[in-house]
Task: inverse folding
């Protein structure tokens, strides 16, 4: 079974701080994603990575960056946190192969004060 | 431009009733349509999925109906139970593309005992 682990379930940070959200997967999946989930807005893609050191912008990349130095780890970075980045952040993975579902972690609820 | 529209946003059903959630898509290149179920405090998890050459797929009490000409698909939950109370997301993707899935905005289902 695929396991996607997000390092923190809850995180409280201050405006202007640099924030790191970590995601680790154990199934050797090439593709990893970061989403934010807000009520009524569904899942919005921030960034995704299809290989080590490779990344592509999603629909809402502004204010975020990512790092993928190892295949199993995908980090989301808030360069200078702002209150409008308070949200639930979800990491997901996707294996190769046709018609595969994404596998999600349980999320990090981030509050920016 | 939202490529997958999901309705209703919220749904309340009595125990034993039928829950129906609808999704409509625009991109005719989509060929994989999963539904995800998300319980509070958890990440979304694959519930059931369908491909466009099949008009219906059933797994236990959960059925996907697919109408390719109308570009619509729906999730039916028969004999709804309080344990089915969750948020449901439809999604669409191109199966050979290991990149992005497009998600609906989600439906919060409450099944009253």
Result:
């Amino acid at each position: 079974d695929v396991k996607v682990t997000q390092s923190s379930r809850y995180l409280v940070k201050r405006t202007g701080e640099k924030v790191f959200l970590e995601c680790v997967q154990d199934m050797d999946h090439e593709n990893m994603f970061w989403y934010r989930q807000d009520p009524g807005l569904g899942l919005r893609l921030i960034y995704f990575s299809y290989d080590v050191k490779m990344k592509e912008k999603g629909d809402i990349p502004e204010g975020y960056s990512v790092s993928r130095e190892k295949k199993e780890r995908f980090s989301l970075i808030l360069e200078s946190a702002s209150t409008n980045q308070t949200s639930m952040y979800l990491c997901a993975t996707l294996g190769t192969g046709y018609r595969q579902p994404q596998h999600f972690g349980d999320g990090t609820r981030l509050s920016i004060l | 431009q939202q490529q997958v529209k999901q309705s209703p946003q919220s749904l309340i059903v009595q125990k034993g009733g039928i829950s129906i959630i609808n999704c409509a898509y625009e991109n005719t290149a989509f060929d994989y349509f999963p539904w995800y179920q998300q319980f509070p405090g958890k990440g979304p998890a694959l519930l059931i999925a369908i491909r466009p050459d099949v008009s219906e797929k059933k797994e236990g009490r959960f059925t996907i109906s697919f109408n390719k000409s109308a570009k619509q698909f729906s999730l039916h939950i028969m004999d709804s139970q309080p344990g089915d109370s969750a948020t449901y997301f439809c999604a669409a993707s191109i199966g050979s593309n290991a990149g992005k899935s497009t998600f609906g905005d989600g439906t919060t289902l409450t099944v009253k005992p």
Observations:
- Chain B has a mean pLDDT of 93.
- The first strand of chain B starts at residue 4 and ends at 7.
- Chain B touches chain A through 25 residues (CB under 8 Å).
